[in-house]
Amino acid sequence: xxxxxxxxxxxLIIGYLLLISLLIVLFGRPLSEYYDELLLNIVxxxxxxxxxxxxxxxxxxxxxxxxxxxxxLLFGLFYEQTGGLMKLFFPNFLDYQLTAFEQAIFGIExxxxxxxxxxxxxxxxxxxxCYFSYYLMLPTFLIALYFMKRYDIIKRGLTAICLxxxxxxxxxxxxxxxxxxxxxxxxxxxxxTGPIFRPLVxxxxxxxxxxxxxxxxxxxxxxxxxxxxxxxxxxxxxxFLIPLNIGLALGTVYGRFxxxxxxxxxxxxxxxxxxxxxxxxNKFDPDSFKSFxxxxxxxxxxx
Length: 303
Known about the structure:
By secondary structure, the chain is an all-alpha fold. The chain has one domain. The chain has helices spanning 8-27, 35-54, 61-69, 71-85, 95-106, 110-117, 121-147, 151-174, 180-183, 197-208, 218-233, 235-254, 260-280, 286-302.
């Protein structure tokens, strides 16, 4: 009899969808506007349950590949869903509060200051390249580690990434922010343009971004989780990625996608979620638990 393994990211995905469904039922009014979201959650929960029940480690590598990496295929779906839930708790975006806070701290809203003092095509291209790299980070992270057979890093990393995304998505609803490119539209003097990477960023935003979901910056948070995961195992690769992550964080503000506060909160969430995962993951992963028990048996026998 084949024993099914339930990984922490399986539990997190099902738990997140159940929580979102409960919040919709409790707060979504009129409820009829949220039927699509509820149906999607039911379908995905059923899909995850089928993956747990029927996909297991076999000689067929493609099955193992999908079993380990399937969460990476769902993150875009979960992000898109937030667009329909952005005003689940509040009827309007709350940018006026956040911008008032940042102006009290900095004396001027940072993206407005950048618009007046630092818009430059070379800076735009460098920071846009760093920003666009986010869309390549997750598939590169997962696929490269899979073919290196570092399944342990993948499972821990996906668990931390799930936590990071799901906590961030809940904050999207609890404190809805649309971002400076909407809130300050019409007050910017310069357009941000570039020959290569800025158009790629614009295309990615046009095709994949939802209106809202700026607090916190999931770009910064998730990129930081992957950076820490890599730097723990492959130090030199990690050091190489640090400038890319810094450029990504700067690019979110320079590109008018996020406020400084979004970046700071995203950084805090990323660090918190990877720290939590590293501390507790082995207690819940069936493979790690089995390895721990086997090592304990050996130690007891030797002693």
